[in-house]
Model the fold of this input.
Amino acid sequence: MTDHSVSDSNNSSNNKNTPQTAPKIAIVGGGLTGLFTATLLEQAFNQLSDQQKSKSSLPQITIFEKSRSVGRLATRYRTNERTNKNWQWAFGAQFFTAKSDSFSQFIKPWLKSGLLQPWCAEVVEFTPSDDKQQSPEIKKKEQWNTTHARYINTPKMTSWGTSVSGRFTPVHSKIQNPCRAT
Done:
């Protein structure tokens, strides 16, 4: 295995004429966390001063994803053996907030492009009908607004991740459990 770590200052005098290879970075998971980890790493390397850039190359980032697409919630599918109906469970956040100025600046290009938008949902309390009541009871609890916005992807939940992944080449592979006996 090749060592891609940066040499410490004590050994740097021995390596003045040795060309630095680009660091190789593997990210497991092509969801939003993996995609933005790659994006932030790329930005960090791009912000290095010219002197630092001459000493190291931009990283080679590879994202490994087991699903057929990226930028999705973790999803599990099951078929009920008795009814033969298919079920799907999506795990993860349906929306997110931007509480810091730095994160607000980070998402600004996607807000301008329309891939992200505030979700101004009306939150209600739903009480199902019982035998005595003909219809369910619905009470308005709150209306979300843009003051403390909750953001969603548009037009689909995968749109933002798909847009970000265009800058990288995800590798679709079945990731095997390293603890399983072979």
Summary: The first strand starts at residue 24 and ends at 28. The CA atoms of residues 118 and 147 lie 10 Å apart. The chain is about 25% helix and 25% strand.
